[in-house]
Every structure is written in structure tokens, then in C-alpha cells.
Design goal:
The chain is of the alpha/beta class. 41% of the residues lie in helices and 16% in strands. Strands 3-2-1-4-5 form a 5-stranded mixed beta sheet, with helices on both faces.
């Protein structure tokens, strides 16, 4: 920031003075939010302006919205800041392989959280299985909002949706995870329930995830 101001205005503030000025001007230190370079901003704006009102109308008519996504959890820990004596950095004895489990889940506008965890990557058949599970637990019409992953656009899935009068799908703009609130669930689990957690095997990881899902349901109830 100091360099940018100096090069543009030929005014070179002392670093300490610059921080005071920035606070006075309404600035604060913030962690940037990542956004995919491939994202089409016009498509996102169009989706918000046209699809969101449509979804709001569905809710007004008593329909449930379900935000669906998949996530992977590996034996590698999510490293997070923690307390330790000064000068003594904590050490995590963690597995270095990529063995993982995959979870498909959804949160609904009625406050429900549903998930299914699989040993391998989620495939199209598991998406259909999960939607069947979703329909058993959510009454009435349901619109599922999901991304454009290939497993969400199989012929088998299209045929399944066509045969379910209470189910419809609505796709998010490409590369727009920030529009899917379930991403906040995945982030919470990784940053709080799995932070600095070093499972010795997949069974231990699954056990911790069971606790995580219970916590998420408690918070959403």
C-alpha cells in the first residue's frame, strides 16, 4: 500500500503513520475472498437478478429449497493457528497420504441438514441415492440448487428428476461456490471440527465427522 501511494502520488508515508491514516480513512486489514478467474460476472449478476426472485417465489408458495454440494476429507489435517508457549511452534504428527472420504450433503430453507459419506469419490449414482434420501426427509415440493459438476448432469439423473413430480433442479452459474451456502458448512467443519486433527486412519476420520454432523444439526436446529 505504501509503495502504491508513493508511486502514484509521489508521497511516501512512514509505515506506522500510513496504518493510522488507513484506519482513519475507513480501511482495515482483511483476508481476501478467493474468486475463480473463470467466473463470468455477468452470468452471476443475471442469475441473482432472475433466478433468485424465482426461488423466493417458490419459498413463498411453500416450496423447500435445498442447497447441495460434495466435499472431500483426507487424512491430511487442516492446519490452524493455536495457542503455544512463545518460541515453541506446535508440531502435528500427521499422515501424508491422500486417503479420503467424500460427503454429499444439503441444507434446506427449513433448517434441515442431510448428508451421506462414501469411501470413494461421489459419483452420479450416489447423487441419485442422496436425492432419494432427501425426498424421504423433506415434505412437499423441493428445488435443489447445485453446481454444474458432471455428476449433476448425467442422463440417469435427468431421468430420475423427470419421474419425481416433487423435485426440480436449479443450477448455479459456473465457478460460483460463494452462491451456495452449504460451502459455509464445509468450511466450518474443516476449520473448527477438523482443525489440527490428525486421524490415524479413515475410521478415526469418519468418527470425527459423525460428531461434526451432529454439531451442524445442533447449530441449525
Amino acid at each position: 500500500m505504501r509503495k502504491a501511494i508513493g508511486l502514484k502520488f509521489d508521497v511516501w508515508y512512514h509505515v506506522d503513520h500510513l496504518s493510522r491514516l488507513l484506519h482513519a480513512w475507513g480501511f482495515s486489514r482483511q483476508k481476501p475472498t478467493k474468486r475463480a478467474a473463470e467466473q463470468d460476472q455477468e452470468a452471476v449478476i443475471a442469475w441473482i437478478e432472475t433466478v433468485v426472485p424465482e426461488l423466493e417465489k417458490k419459498m413463498e408458495d411453500g416450496e423447500t429449497l435445498a442447497f447441495l454440494d460434495e466435499v472431500g476429507f483426507s487424512l491430511k489435517p487442516t492446519v490452524s493457528r493455536t495457542w503455544a508457549p512463545c518460541g515453541q511452534s506446535p508440531v502435528l504428527d500427521a499422515k501424508t497420504n491422500w486417503d479420503k472420504v467424500s460427503t454429499i450433503g444439503a441444507i434446506t430453507t427449513t433448517g434441515q441438514f442431510l448428508q451421506q459419506t462414501h469411501q470413494a469419490a461421489v459419483k452420479g449414482t450416489q447423487v441419485i441415492q442422496f436425492l432419494t434420501h432427501l425426498l424421504r426427509h423433506v415434505a412437499g415440493k423441493v428445488t435443489v440448487i447445485l453446481d454444474n459438476a458432471s455428476i449433476h448432469k448425467t442422463k440417469a439423473l435427468s431421468a430420475f428428476v423427470a419421474g419425481e413430480v416433487c423435485l426440480s433442479l436449479k443450477y448455479l452459474p459456473p465457478y460460483s461456490p460463494e452462491l451456495n451456502p452449504i460451502e459455509l458448512i464445509w468450511a466450518y467443519v474443516k476449520q473448527h471440527m477438523l482443525a489440527n486433527f490428525c486421524p490415524k486412519d479413515l475410521l478415526t476420520l469418519k468418527s470425527r465427522l459423525v460428531q461434526a454432523w451432529q454439531r451442524v444439526r445442533y447449530l441449525s436446529s
